[in-house]
TrEMBL record:
Protein name from the UniProt record: O-succinylbenzoate--CoA ligase
Molecular function terms, GO-annotated: acid-thiol ligase activity
Lineage start: Bacteria, Bacillati, Actinomycetota, Actinomycetes, Mycobacteriales
Signal peptide start and end residues: none
Keyword set, alphabetical order: Ligase
Length: 502
């Protein structure tokens, strides 16, 4: 098994060999042949510096051509890549470095940050910006050095370590097998159906499971072209990238789609497909986005524990409000708290998945591994509803459920009611402890810019009274200018909880 050949080398004897594989703001376009040679050159650098095949290596860098080359070069040399988000704090990066046991890394950050990280990562050998220099040197000389032989991979060999977001505690490392990476094009890849000629743009970064699949695993195997976005991603930045690069496939998250639904300019658009993941996609938002973009919006669900997307709607029948069905090769069941499969005309419970990409467990966390990786697969942490023979509906995250007077309430249920109120641009509900230590629901509302805030507040209160039982109604309503989001554009509920506690 050879990972670089599987994803890149397969195109070198085809008309795609000189077609652009990637586009970024620093190096411009890089073709498949140049990408392959650059990966070999970085592997040669690793070998020359005594890096042992089988080692884990941190890849601490924003999305760029150089970042992709670093990952491919590591695989060429037989090393497992550990992508890390550079937006994390020095302390968080230091934790991941120690937890994963990496001994060296590819680091591409600013000079000021680099000096701070040198203190945070004293025991890690760093290849700083070497990849970019290798590519530029190859371009100047027009020649490529003879690369070392590629390391062969066993199917169960660790090739990628991804860290969970740590939203419910410290981040946990998930080791993915080489065979899992190769399976992705056969799973969700069959639904996205990328092809040579497609131009892919993902707002999720390579340091996240969703972005890694969007920008590397799927498009490379398909021979497509991928646009890599460097820096923070917001609606204006994405809109500009859409106008400039005219992608055919867009991968993003619901909150960015909500912004695009208001500002997207379809003149000159070449979009044929949009994919959403990362958080719940309300049915009304899905319909608005599809009307504005003029293309199917595939709603999907994935998890770091299983590498990439596991459930998705059919582009031909998007089905707003559902997360669709398991992708090819995946089995999804709804289970109770004891792990028993629920069977009935309509059931609700924990989502359990099994398939080729499900990892074996977390790094050095046996208790958490036993809780999540059980019953022949993994629990995603989601509560879902399923009708017999029908699609799966997302209810909420198990750890986001509110305990209100002994009743379990999904924030999404309250949010769905509030979003229907005229004048509400966005909203979110979180649980916050009151003075007695009891959990209360706090509703945060973003008002449309041209609406009078007090009138919208009154309308929200009236709607809640009409639509929800008293036990489900928020105890407090806060009007805010915007909802906090993470680096990838997902709602940062932990920040809202902190705000609500004060």
């Amino acid at each position: 098994m050879n990972l670089v050949e599987f994803f890149v080398g397969r195109h070198l004897d085809s008309p795609r060999k000189d077609a652009p594989a990637y586009i970024d703001s620093e190096l411009g376009e890089i073709g498949y042949t140049e990408l392959y040679r650059a990966a070999g050159a970085f592997a040669d650098l690793l070998s020359g510096n005594g890096v042992a095949p089988g080692s884990r290596a941190m890849v601490l860098a924003d999305d760029s051509v150089a970042t992709v080359v670093a990952v491919l070069g590591l695989w060429w040399h037989g090393c497992a890549a550990v992508p890390v988000n550079p937006a994390l704090s020095d302390k968080e990066i230091g934790f991941i470095a120690a937890d994963s046991g990496v001994k060296f890394g590819y680091v591409d950050v600013s000079g000021t940050r680099l000096s701070r990280l040198a203190a945070a990562l004293p025991d890690i050998g760093q290849f700083r910006n070497h990849v970019r220099e290798l590519i530029l040197r190859q371009r100047r000389s027009g020649e490529a050095a003879t690369p070392p032989p590629q390391q062969q991979w066993l199917p169960d060999q660790e090739a990628l370590v991804q860290y969970t977001s740590g939203s419910t505690g410290v981040p946990k490392g998930v080791a993915h097998r080489a065979s899992a990476l190769q399976w992705v094009p056969s799973g969700f890849g069959r639904i996205a159906a990328l092809a040579p000629g497609d131009i892919v743009l993902s707002t999720a970064k390579l340091s996240f499971a969703y972005g890694f699949g969007n920008s590397l695993l799927l498009p490379l195997h398909a021979g497509a072209t991928t646009v890599l976005l460097n820096g923070g991603v917001d609606a204006q930045f994405v809109a500009a990238a859409l106008r400039r690069h005219r992608p055919t496939v867009l991968f993003s998250v619901p909150r960015l789609y909500a912004a695009l639904a208001e500002s997207f300019d379809d003149r000159g658009s070449r979009l044929r497909l949009a994919v959403s993941a990362g958080e719940a996609l309300p049915a009304d938002l899905s319909e608005r986005v599809m009307r504005r973009l003029g293309v199917p919006l595939v709603n999907s669900l994935g998890t770091t524990e299983a590498l990439y997307i596991l459930l998705a709607t059919n582009p031909a029948e998007p089905g707003p409000g559902t997360i669709g069905r398991p992708v090819p090769g995946v089995r999804a069941t709804v289970r109770d708290q004891d792990g028993r499969i629920l069977d009935g005309d309509e059931v609700q419970g924990r989502l359990h998945v099994a398939g080729p990409s499900v990892a074996a467990g977390y790094l050095d966390r046996p208790e958490a591994t036993r809780e999540t990786f059980a019953d022949g697969g993994a629990y995603t942490g989601d509560i879902v509803r399923r009708t017999r023979g029908g699609p799966i509906y997302y209810v909420g995250r198990a750890d986001d459920f509110l305990n209100l007077g002994g009743y379990k309430v999904a924030p999404a249920e309250i949010e769905g009611v509030v979003r229907a109120v005229v004048g509400v641009r966005d909203c979110a509900v979180v649980g916050v402890a009151d003075d007695h230590g009891l959990q209360q629901a706090v509703l945060f509302v973003v008002v449309e810019g041209d609406r009078e805030s007090s009138a919208v507040r009154r309308a929200v209160i009236a709607c809640l009274r009409a639509e929800l039982a008293s036990l489900k109604r928020p105890s407090r309503i806060e009007l805010v200018d915007a909802l906090p989001t993470t680096w990838t554009g997902k709602l940062a509920r932990n920040q809202l909880r902190a705000i609500g506690a004060h």
